[in-house]
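In the design runs reported in the main text, the only information available to the sequence generator was the tokenized backbone. The following block is the verbatim input for one such run; it is reproduced so that readers can re-run the procedure and compare outputs position by position.
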């Protein structure tokens, strides 16, 4: 490609980037307007690949049902697997069931358990993640893959750096999570000193739906329910 052509292509990209700001702003405005009306919610994260017969799918349904019975709504990523289980449990418990769906080729589709007026669609992961963080009173993290880990560690980082208010981060499934947390303690904390001892206080590992509710209720007996920034 000639130098003139390369410069032309780069200038076209810069122009398109400028126009993309309006689409990004539109997603933020729509998200803020809808989410601000929903009330206190807890986000549930986990793998989109988990099947209904899986023990963690069934546990997620029970967790979500307990959450709405305790007065919170449930927010998920809106798709299949653990996300579907979270919305199913919220729906079963008669509570608020929110889905923040992301447009992904061949992979994501919204599940049928989201309240029709509380299903939001996003093109941008970072806008969607802002909605999770801003309007969640807690993160319940079920077994999942890279996306689940991304959401988990971003929340921990934002709390650690005081960019958002502290809220409960609950990892469900000790068989799944203990190895990772042991590595964090032995390598990041004890061996290299890359984190502080108090950073570990941000994380809880549990195995039962009642433990999730105990942690949430204990935290909000001392803290206000409000958006995180």
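Verbatim output:
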């Amino acid at each position: 490609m000639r130098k003139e052509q390369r410069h032309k292509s780069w200038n076209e990209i810069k122009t398109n980037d400028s126009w993309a700001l309006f689409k990004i702003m539109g997603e933020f405005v729509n998200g803020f307007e809808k989410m601000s009306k929903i009330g206190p919610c807890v986000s549930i994260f986990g793998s989109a690949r988990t099947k209904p017969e899986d023990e963690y799918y069934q546990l997620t349904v029970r967790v979500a049902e307990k959450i709405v019975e305790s007065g919170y709504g449930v927010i998920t990523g809106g798709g299949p697997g653990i996300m579907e289980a979270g919305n199913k449990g919220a729906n079963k418990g008669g509570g608020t069931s929110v889905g923040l769906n992301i447009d992904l080729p061949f992979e994501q589709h919204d599940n049928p358990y989201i309240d029709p007026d509380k299903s939001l669609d996003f093109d941008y992961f970072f806008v969607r993640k802002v909605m999770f963080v801003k309007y969640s009173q807690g993160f319940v993290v079920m077994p999942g893959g890279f996306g689940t880990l991304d959401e988990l560690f971003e929340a921990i980082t934002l709390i650690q750096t005081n960019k958002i208010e502290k809220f409960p981060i609950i990892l469900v499934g000790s068989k799944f999570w203990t190895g990772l947390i042991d590595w964090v303690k032995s390598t990041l904390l004890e061996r290299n000193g890359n984190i502080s001892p108090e950073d570990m206080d941000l994380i809880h590992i549990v195995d039962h739906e009642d433990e999730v509710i105990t942690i949430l209720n204990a935290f909000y007996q001392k803290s206000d329910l409000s958006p995180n920034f």
